[in-house]
Amino acid sequence: MNVDELNALERYLEIWMFNIRSAKVIQHKAYKLLEEKLLWAPLKLSYLTDADNDSRDPGTEEQGKSISNSSNL
Questions:
Q1: What is the reported pTM?
Q2: d(CA 73, CA 71)
């Protein structure tokens, strides 16, 4: 191999390494986003159901009962 071929090979390897690193970063961000959604989804759901049964607001208490009754049907 001559110097020009080695330089071309080095360039292609640098591009390949950049693409691999970019893919890893994208996968890591997607994994973190999915992990965050999975971790926070139950908490958001419990927060919403707790808000439906809030004893400080009689309207929400009735709303919570109607949701509970409709789910038993």
A1: 0.49
A2: 5
Which of 47, 58, 60 shows the shortest CA–CA distance to 68? 60
Helix (H) or strand (E) holding 55: none
Q: Output DSSP code: residue 31.
A: H
Write out pLDDT tens, residues 9-51.
999 999 999 999 999 999 999 999 988 888 777 766 666 666 5
pLDDT surpasses 90 at 52: no
| Cα distance between residue 63 and residue 2, in whole Å | 79
Q: Per-domain residue ranges for the chain?
A: 3-71
